[in-house]
Design a protein that fits this description.
The structure holds 2 protein chains of 2 kinds.
Chain A (H helix, E strand, L loop, with lengths): L2 E4 L4 E4 L4 E3 L1 E4 L5 E7 L5 E7 L5 E4 L2 E4 L9 E3 L8 E8 L8 E2 L3 E6 L1
Parallel strand pairs in A: 2-12
Antiparallel strand pairs in A: 1-4, 3-9, 5-6, 5-10, 7-8, 8-9, 10-11, 10-12
Chain B lengths: L3 E3 L3 E4 L5 E7 L5 E8 L3 E10 L2 E4 L6 E7 L2 E6 L8 E8 L8 E2 L3 E5 L1
Parallel strand pairs in B: 2-11
Antiparallel strand pairs in B: 1-3, 3-8, 4-5, 4-9, 5-6, 7-8, 9-10, 9-11
Classes of the chains: A mainly beta, B mainly beta.
Chain lengths: ~110, ~110
């Protein structure tokens, strides 16, 4: 079946450090890939997405590239801020999945001043 | 501004009670979902609906049922609440197109005592 694997957290960084959160997936066909962010006490909101191989999604300084050869969609940011502290979820949507989004377990990011 | 609204942010219920969690979306989306979120387990799909009166079981449907009498409203029902159903519940909606994102409500934190 379809699945998403994320690196375990928490990831602890100092402000202005470089961020990478790894995400790999298993799916039939060509899924769409998403990163969602959840700030404390809130629901999930879309951070970025990519819908085909080699697409790069970007938003708020975050980027992720859809790599079909390595079945990966790693999230990166060049310089994190304290306000980026949140839980980040990688997700996929596949044709075989009835419009469902399949999520990873989430990675908590803690950024200190 | 698109919106998914869950009826309660916090609920405390007693073991054995029947519990209703309500979700309303204003985007005319065909698909609606109920997830539960637990630490270390990420988001797990309970039920989803792809049309009015249509429903499909997700990964963890036991102890839950759902109702979708109108397109904009999707209800999650705990027939007899138990302490292991204490969790954060997230509702989401999504259009019928593969490449679109899901929109989430703010979540309901349910405590069963």
């Amino acid at each position: 079946g379809n699945s998403v694997t994320q690196m375990e957290g928490p990831v602890t960084l100092s402000e202005e450090a470089f961020l990478t959160i790894n995400c790999t997936y298993t799916a039939t066909g060509y899924p769409s890939l998403f990163w969602y962010v959840q700030y404390p006490g809130e629901g999930l909101q879309l951070l970025l997405k990519a819908t085909k191989a080699d697409d790069k999604g970007s938003n708020k300084g975050f980027e992720a590239t859809y790599r079909k050869e390595t079945t990966s969609f790693h999230l990166e940011k060049g310089s994190v801020q304290v306000s980026d502290s949140a839980v980040y979820f990688c997700a996929l949507s596949a044709l075989s999945g009835f419009q469902k989004l399949v999520f990873g377990t989430g990675t908590r990011l803690l950024v200190s001043p | 501004d698109v919106k998914v609204t869950q009826s309660s942010r916090y609920l405390v219920k007693r073991t054995g009670e029947k519990v209703f969690l309500e979700c309303v979306q204003d985007m005319d989306h065909e698909n609606m979902f109920w997830y539960r979120q637990d630490p270390g387990l990420g988001l797990r799909l309970i039920y989803f609906s792809y049309d009015v009166k249509m429903k499909e079981k997700g990964d963890i449907p036991e102890g839950y049922s759902v109702s979708r009498e109108k397109k904009e409203r999707f209800s999650l029902i705990l027939e007899s609440a138990s302490t292991n159903q204490t969790s954060m519940y997230l509702c989401a909606s999504r259009s019928g197109h593969l490449n679109t994102e899901a929109f989430f409500g703010q979540g309901t934190r349910l405590t069963v005592v």
